[in-house]
Amino acid sequence: MIQKYNINPKVIHLDSFDYEEGIKFSLIPAEIDNKSYFVANEDNLMDALNLYSKIDQQFEILITDKDSFERLLSQVIELKTQKDLEENNFEEDEEENIDLEDFVKSSIDILNSEDTAPIIKFVNSMFFQAVKKQASDIHIETHEHYGMLRFRIDGVLINQAKINKKVVELIINRIKVISNLDISEKRIPQDGRTHIKLQKQQIDIRVSIIPTYFGEKVVMRILMESSQIPTLKELGFDSHITDGFKELLDHSYGMILVTGPTGSGKSTTLHSFLQTIASNEKNIITVEDPVEYKTDNINQIQVNQKVGLDFQKALRSILRQDPDIVMVGEIRDKETAQIAIQAALTGHLMLSTLHTNSAVAAITRLIDMGIDSYLISSSLIGVLSQRLSRVLCSCKKKNNLYKNELEKIIGKVDFDLYEPVGCEKCNFTGFKGRKAIGELFMINDEVRILIAKGASDVEIKNNAIKYGMKTLKDSIVDLIKAGDISFKEAVRIGLKD
CA torsion sign, 137 to 140 to 143 to 146? Predict the structure, then answer.
């Protein structure tokens, strides 16, 4: 019998060994330095020795600390359940009516069972429900006395299940296993990726885990396939904006920017642009953080800060790859902005995003970064500022409570306002789907002169309106008039900005 701490043993398979018993009594067969052992946890040594006495296969016992044993245990669970994850192809009539909170309440044996199946089934059902409800993110939070599962649907977090705190720990361990993360590490943030198979569809998921005061919090972003990228028409913008997109994308060089807050659909719009202009004759390269849509007809680079691959380094390398079209996920600093503008000036069509509240404000933002106004006027060809608004479900009802408040913003209101109600069709949220709203700022010669002169945002905006630009505020008011959105939703997306 020997002792060896702080190791990372590799689990081995023995046909005669009951791995459920091994998990229960903390004794697992493993290989270390090309030699086979039975590895025991020092905290449960007596149980391990009792099991060892009943086994025919007599390897030496290696006693290790809790963390090392946890790493080995995570391998066992992964090997034991990976086949289930890959082969599990949910049938809709079997899983669609599962209520996750009811599932947790009915699975009272989860904490008392050595079998990992209830946790596996819960996690699989969680993914199924998230995809079915068209959630973009899954949140698992640990509070003082319980855990909470929430889905982000149409941009808003909605509670799905309240979970026993100990069950939350098992669920998070399961997520770590399928994401190749360290199951024993609970003190530092961890990032990973996994993929699941639902109804013959492969779905990629980005996993982020952070330690919080009462335990770990998990956020999982459901990443999309190229087949799910909407066309320009499917984006939902008004026809005059869609026509403007087509005009911008006909350019062979110049910079197109998409602006808006986090979660406003900027990446989706950029990928829709790329799919519109992609062809065998064009070399398209993107730099993204993360790669949200996997596509076969463009070359995608994932930013990796751990190895020093940031937007600037990737963008410099891209320009040596003979690109026709370049997409940078976000312009965050002066250096990235300078390289992007140089690319636009030297014969490349450059697409990127900025965080600004309006289209015209993109110019001010670039100047604040330290970019000369004459470079902006020479390279920029168009800016789209966009929002995503939740659309009222057909169960909506008239409510003119906020009419006076709306009149303070836009003047006389001679139409009815509507508010959400909630029904089965909209999961009792009152909203069904989202609609893209935008203002498209096309750069003409007059605007170029104004930018080069250092004109204010107001002067540039007034010029753009003179030439037909419809502002975000006007588009939002049109949706209120049509009864598509509520007053509160209009304020949330920028009516008062």
Answer: positive
* 419, pLDDT greater than 90: yes
Q: Mention every residue, 6+ apart, whose C-beta is less than 8 A from residue 334.
A: 369, 370, 371
Q: Residue 34: which residues within 8 A CB-CB, separation 6 or more?
A: none
Position 48 confidence tier, pLDDT thresholds 50, 70, 90? confident
**Beta partners for 27?**
40
Q: Could you tell me how many residues make up the chain?
A: 497
* pLDDT value of residue 154: 83
Average pLDDT value for residue range 358-370: 93
Question: Cα–Cα distance between 307 and 145 in angstroms, integer?
Answer: 39
Q: What is 373-440 written as a DSSP string? A: HHHHHHHEEEEEEEEEEEEEPTT-EE--TTHHHHHHHHS---S--EE----GGGTTSSEEEEEEEEEE
Contact assessment for residue 173 and residue 191, using Cβ atoms and an 8 Å cutoff? no
pTM of the model: 0.74
Give the residue from 438, 446, 437, 482 showing the smallest Cα distance to 467. Answer: 446
